[in-house]
Each structure stands twice: as C-alpha cells, then as structure tokens.
Amino acid sequence: MAHEHNDHCGHEAHDHDHDHDAPGNLGPSDTLYPYIDFENVVALNAETEGRVAIKPWHERQSEEKFIESDADDQLILRVPFTGSVKLRAILLKTGPGEQTPDKVCIFANEDNLDFSDVSERKPIQEFDVPESRDVGEYAVKPAKFSNVTSVTLFFPGSLGGDTTRLYYVGFLGHWTERKTNPVITVYESQANLADHEKIQGMDGSFSAPQM
Questions:
Q1: Would you kindly state where each structural domain of the chain is located, as residue ranges?
Q2: How many beta carbons lie within 10 A of that of residue 53, not counting itself?
C-alpha cells in the first residue's frame, strides 16, 4: 500500500500561525473542535480516555496530557462529530522519539473498527508521521472526506518504542448540521407524476431525476 509522501509529509510538521487563523487565540477559523462529540470518543488499547488528546488550539503544544497505547504500540482513536463534516486536514503532535507512530491510517464513518478487522480494511488515506515535537498538519483529499460523521485513526506501530503516544489531535474542515434523509423527504413531499413526465420526456412512465 503506497504511503502519502511529497506534498503531505515532508514539510507538514510545523508550528506557526496560518492565514486562516481566527483573531485572538481561537486557532484556525475552520477548526472542528467545537463540533466533536466528546462523550462518544473511543480509544482502543489506550491507558487513558481518547478525548484527553483532543484539546483546544491554545493547548496544542502542551505535553501535560496525552494518549498512550497500553499492551503494545498499536492504537485506534475514533472521533465522532455532532454533524456532517467536510474534512480538510488532521493535526497531530506525537512522540517523543521512538514513541512517535510510524504512520496514521484514516477511515471515515467506520464506527465499529477494532484490531481484529482494521488490518483487513483499506484506509481512505494514510500518511507517514515524521519524528517531531511540533504539530504536523496532514491535508486529506476533501472529495474523499466530504460527508463525514466520524473519523477513525489507526496507528499500526511506533518508530521502535514499546508504546505509541499522542499529545494532540485536531481536525480542520467545514461542519454542517446533520439532516435526516433529506433526499427522501424532498421526493415524498414534491412527487408529481405529471411534472416528472414533462422533465424526463418519458412516455407515461415515471423516472426519478438522475443524480
């Protein structure tokens, strides 16, 4: 499986203010921190709750609290959102040293992944994680993460340590309120056979508009 290199990994470990940062110390204007469903964040094979590493922007460099794997160096972190998200990037501060994960595999809307099946699933995207004490920004392919209700991060191993450690996990993107079956609602409320016949040009047969 090919890793994401070049534009995504080599120069992404950094810690500086972006042009899209909001005024003051709120962080990037498109941070998804306010829209995380903290009560349902799950960390598998972790010594502490997963949400301890999902911090406000001004705490991104803090190393006081962190997630660390337990039995070995594998770690799964599942983060649900309170609405639908178009994900733009994932932010990670990891380490130190050999406790840095060697890579991160990213899944969307997989709410039941565990270690028994995660290795059999192909992630939507994955990145090598450089050894650094700074916050790295990993830009995902927006088209692949355009309707996300949860993100699962799988860290399959460390750079040689017995455990893997995460100090900070953040998300950038656009949040919208979750709607319930919007397409079905529209068609049920507006279905008119005569109208559809005129639009579709069908000879008396009904055909739903092609999406």
A1: 33-178, 179-211
A2: 24
Tell whether the model's pLDDT for residue 188 goes beyond 60. Answer: no
Q: What is the mean pLDDT of the chain?
A: 81
Give Cβ neighbours of residue 34 (< 8 Å, ≥ 6 apart).
none
Contacts of 180 (CB under 8 A, 6+ apart): none
Q: Which CATH superfamily is domain 33-178 in?
A: PITH domain (2.60.120.470)
Angle CA 84–178–104, to nearest 5 = 20
Q: How far is CA 196 from CA 181, 182, 183, 209, in A?
A: 21, 19, 16, 8
Does the reported pTM lie above 0.90?
A: no
Q: From the centroid of its chain, how far is CA 2?
A: 19
Q: Give tens-digit pLDDT for 55-101.
A: 999 999 999 999 999 999 999 999 999 999 999 999 999 999 999 99
- 134: tokens are 């700074």
The two structure tokens encoding residue 182: 């919007």
